[in-house]
Specification:
about 290 residues; alpha/beta; seven-stranded parallel beta sheet; 8 helices; 7 strands
Amino acid sequence: MSITSSTPSAAEQQDRQPGVQGEMDHRPEGDERDYIGSGKLKGRVALVTGGDSGIGRAVAIAFAKEGADLMVVYLDEHRDANHTRAAIEREGRRCETMSIDLGREASARLVIEQTIAKFGRLDILVNNAGEQYPQGSLADISAEQLERTFRSNIFSMFFLCKAALPHLASGARIINTSSVTAYRGSAHLLDYSSTKGAIVGFTRSLAKQLAPQGILVNGVAPGPIWTPLIPSTFNPQEVAQFGKKTPLGRPGQPNEVAGCYVFLASDDASYMSGQFLHPNGGEVVNG
């Protein structure tokens, strides 16, 4: 697996979130074909939000390689979603896609209804979709931005989990994407970091609530990972320096994170709940 071919550069810029992977010159590494699955998720159905690109795409493809069928949910990046779908189908697995804004409860209910209608079951729910809007001061964060960030990043998790619960049996998995910013903060991503901290609390609390039902709830808190969200968020200078302050001195790639989700979704993690994994380039967060 290459870890250098998609090095960020200042030339990578996009003007809308969450970004389009198909328009990037330095593509994130998430759908290489050298990963060999071993049937860890054979016969299971997984729903991955934000599955069109970045971490979500890498997770969806890794799940397919492990034998799962996929419902991939995304906002409106149709070309990216079609790429993900094609990659999953190349693995001989079934994939359905759905374009929707998950910030409303009715949308979450519709996603779950469609998943059950198309697949008849749901075994793994990956809450991964998110947005971020840097601001230099708390005073610059409008009420509209605050609500949008919370609706996209944490409200959607509440809504999807609530809608999914009646369909989840013992042994089902819920995996939530947080961030290293939940543990160390970020001066320029105040509202985003707050949602990621909320995700940690939500995950740990839901894990306790669902433990008697045998449903395991865990999370992944990535560090700086090269995805379309980065060039659609930061200015050229920040993009060029992205990830270089980690102990490993570089950003991570989506396919370096996907294995965490495979582990948490598989029987290998049958005695884990309420926990977070930290693929973050070596930063110790004590969380």
